[in-house]
Design brief:
Length: 495
């Protein structure tokens, strides 16, 4: 029989559990609050408007529009359509969909931590880092598929670990994993990277469980068969459009600074010189030290946990980086890499909590928690993350005389034309006609507006200067600014 626990020790353990529980409740509260804060502050942006307009289509037309877009599979848009049918198109209701999806990710996160046998402090720290991360908060509020991708990635990782570790109900666990992975790849093509890394993990650590590798391979084959109809439709659309350039031609090839910067965003961004490099040192040091100790001790369980977290944290990003230099077209988009965010922050949390000696652990935990909290609260109140399209459209409506009609608004890219058209239409405005043109000389008429983005205007003279030189009278400009770019609208009259 085991010796009874002394009263002082029992009281100490009870107090420690209460402290960990309080920290967990605080982390959950921050997780929810950060994702609901300023939920309706921003206008819908270009991509979000595309989501809403796609969801307005009939079911068949929706699938056709998404296939022609080439960039994303259809699951998110189908779910958004159902969401709109239930509650309408108010900004709050639209934004609530991704926010609630992000909040729901707490559940598979906790289940994954349980399967990995995380200690309570490790789980709490990882949850806190995820809760206040500005990158994850931003995409949790966007009416796009990224919060759904984050949620399904966590579900897939949880079910994969369960399938890998448990002998009982092996086929049932595999079936659940298959269903989630099917939803994952129908949400975003980068979901295939999650499945690929799961296969790599089984190859490296599952050799003594060859049956699992065989069953998982069969499930991947079934996934390919189930995904083939959509792949065929998208391939046909790509051939008709003569490639992907029209849809993803804007994506530039990354360099090493982009790779470092991405992980800097997961650490939390602060605005001072060398901040990203410093964050990489603070967050990376525990991981390196844990890796070194795990290899020295040759602890199989520690090595597989470390190896798994490392694989899911870095391999998708490294493969995307390499593919962007090998393929004819880059595929590096940091929001698609949201699949690595949770594993990476879990890796940092576990590595930091397992540091030895105690004084080193205390220092590193203080640095990591302080950095994450300061960065999270620094980004939270910022109001310049998106362009105020609705306010800009309203300013244009007020500036135009009420008796006007048939006023053309010339925009040089869809990024500018679509939001203006959306908000004019939403306001019931009939005086304006939005026209997307490639050349400023296509703008003609006695009176019209010009709308453009300064960061993509690549001519020596500004549009105002070109039109003024041609004898037009230029009115006062309306502007909306966000990080790194300004949208400019101005009225024009022929003298």
């Amino acid at each position: 029989m085991s010796a009874p626990v002394s009263a002082p020790l029992e009281n100490k353990m009870f107090l420690r559990r209460n402290v960990h529980t309080a920290i967990f409740v605080l982390a959950v509260a921050l997780f929810i609050a950060f994702r609901l804060w300023h939920l309706t502050y921003y206008s819908l942006d270009f991509d979000e408007i595309f989501s809403v307009q796609a969801a307005r289509q009939t079911w068949a037309a929706l699938l056709s529009v998404i296939a022609d877009d080439l960039v994303h599979p259809p699951l998110f848009y189908l779910l958004l359509k159902v969401w709109i049918v239930i509650g309408g198109e108010s900004l709050f209701w639209l934004r609530l969909f991704p926010a609630l999806t992000a909040i729901a990710s707490i559940i598979p996160f906790l289940l994954l931590c349980r399967e990995l046998k995380f200690q309570m402090p490790e789980r709490n720290l990882a949850l806190l880092l995820i809760a206040v991360n500005a990158y994850l908060v931003f995409y949790a509020q966007q009416v796009r598929m990224y919060s759904l991708l984050f949620f399904l990635t966590l579900c897939s990782l949880w079910l994969f670990v369960k399938f890998y570790k448990r002998e009982a109900n092996l086929k049932t666990n595999l079936l659940a994993l298959f269903i989630v992975n099917l939803l994952l790849v129908y949400t975003q093509y980068f979901g295939w990277l999650v499945i690929g890394v799961e296969g790599v993990f089984l190859l490296l650590w599952g050799r003594w469980r060859s049956r699992r590798l065989l069953l998982f391979s069969l499930s991947v084959g079934a996934l390919i068969v189930c995904f083939a109809p959509w792949a065929y439709v998208v391939a046909e659309a790509a051939v008709a459009k003569r490639g992907l350039g029209q849809n993803i031609g804007w994506i530039t090839r990354p360099d090493l600074s982009d790779l470092v910067w991405y992980y800097g965003t997961l650490n939390g961004l602060l605005n001072f010189p060398r901040a990203t490099s410093l964050s990489m040192l603070i967050f990376g040091f525990p991981v390196l030290l844990w890796g070194w100790h795990s290899l020295r001790r040759e602890d199989g369980r520690q090595t597989s946990l470390l190896g798994g977290l490392l694989l899911f944290s870095f391999l998708p990003a490294l493969l995307t980086f390499a593919a962007s230099h090998v393929l004819s077209q880059s595929v590096w988009v940091d929001r698609y890499l949201i699949i690595v965010a949770a594993p990476y922050l879990m890796l940092v949390a576990v590595a930091a909590w397992r540091l030895q000696p105690l004084w080193l652990r205390t220092i590193m935990l203080a640095l990591i928690i302080s950095w994450a909290l300061v960065a999270g609260f620094y980004e939270l109140p910022k109001t310049d993350k998106k362009i105020a399209w609705q306010a800009l459209a309203q300013q244009m409506m007020r500036a135009e005389p009420a008796q006007s009609s048939g006023v053309r608004v010339y925009a040089f890219e869809g990024f500018v034309a679509a939001p203006l058209e959306f908000y004019l239409e939403t306001a019931g405005e009939r005086r304006f006609q939005i026209l997307a043109v490639k050349d400023i000389h296509a703008a003609t008429g006695e009176h019209f507006w010009i709308a453009f983005r300064n960061s993509t205007w690549n001519q020596p003279q500004q549009p105002q200067e070109i039109l003024a030189a041609e004898g037009y009278r230029i009115g006062d400009a309306l502007t909306a600014e966000t990080q790194g770019q300004t949208i400019i609208l101005f009225p024009v009259w022929r003298p």
